[in-house]
Design brief:
single chain, 116 residues, mainly alpha, 2 domains, 0% strand, MPP6, M-phase phosphoprotein 6
Length: 116
């Protein structure tokens, strides 16, 4: 409390909309200066090109297929979606062919290795 018996209001109370009407011009000017100082202190940034050069590149995947090594993203059973079933058969044939080719590439089969 002040010595003359009147209470001094805090800045937060004076910033309230209904209190703005009753402020004298000096108090308004002081509040505006305080707000500008706070805003200018909050809006600073560092422009550091060496940090920008070290930024990591992030890759965003919309699907979990590549992460989980899934064979098919969509599955159709019992003729529900014939197009998907055709893609599934073609894909499974390709995978089977690749597996057979990798087995043919080996000079010694697993059975021969087991007998030796």
């Amino acid at each position: 409390m002040d010595t003359d018996g009147t209470a001094k209001l805090s800045k937060n109370v004076l910033r309230m909309k209904f209190m703005q009407r009753s402020l004298d011009p000096d108090a308004k000017k002081q509040l505006e200066e305080d707000e500008k100082r706070v805003i200018s202190d909050e809006h600073w940034f560092l422009d550091l090109p060496e940090l920008m050069a070290n930024e990591h590149v992030l890759l965003m995947e919309k699907s979990v297929v590549s992460c989980e090594n899934l064979v098919f993203g969509r599955i159709s059973l019992k003729g529900f979606n014939p197009e998907i079933e055709k893609l599934m058969t073609v894909r499974s044939q390709n995978v089977n062919d690749e597996e057979e080719m990798s087995k043919m590439d080996t000079d010694i089969t697993d059975e021969e290795m087991a007998t030796r």
